[in-house]
């Protein structure tokens, strides 16, 4: 301020301000204005973050401390107890059910054998070797689907289908079914019979493609 007064009262006319605008918009005033703006923005940001922190939900530690208050005789405690439905536990094993699991293994092997015969028939008529190569997967699925249908019919000899124990035994028998099918096709991987099916199909398709 003193500098402005001295310049306005300077004896030499050249040292004075040309007009009032030079007094209002000096670089010194611009620096002060920008400094004030920065301080104002910093205060606003501080207020905003304080507001956000106050609105945050309590942490797990605070929540734990709040739930460990002392319960007096005037307090009412409400506990949510899960409702456990009654589970029917079989009291005794159906008579002769052990034979059922052995029957599942035997029937699975028979249906796998039928699937191999089906593969031999399909390998003679399929036009491309890519389709022949998929026969092994299709044959396993056919054997499983056929056996599962027969398993339900066989199990009804021991239990009625509406008995809850029926579904438990059927589900456990599927384990034996999967194991029997897996063992059969692992053995077939080392059996020349399956390799001959692919070999004959490949030769037939190559001969058919020759001009």
Short descriptors:
211 residues, mainly alpha, 2 domains, 9 helices, 0% strand
- Gap from first CA to last CA: 108 Å
Q: How many domains, in number, for the residues?
A: 2
- Large-scale geometry: elongated
| Helix/strand order, N-terminal first | HHHHHHHHH
Helix fraction bin: 55-70%
The quaternary organization reads as: single chain
Average per-residue pLDDT, rounded, comes to: 79
Rg calculated over all Cα atoms = 45 Å
The portion of residues forming beta strands comes to under 5%
**Which structural class do you get from the secondary structure elements?**
mainly alpha
Largest sheet: none
* SS field, number of helical segments: 9
Number of strands: 0
* Uncertain regions spanning at least 5 consecutive residues: 60-68
3D structure, described in words:
This protein is an all-alpha fold and 211 residues long. Helices cover 69% and strands 0% of the residues. Mean pLDDT is 79; it is low at 60-68. It folds into two domains: 2-61; 97-209. The longest helix has 29 residues, at 27-55.
How is this fold's topology laid out?
Elements: H1 2-8, H2 20-24, H3 27-55, H4 60-66, H5 97-123, H6 129-133, H7 135-155, H8 164-189, H9 192-209
Give a short summary of the structure.
By secondary structure, this protein is mainly α. Helices cover 69% and strands 0% of the residues. The chain folds into two domains: 60 residues; 113 residues.
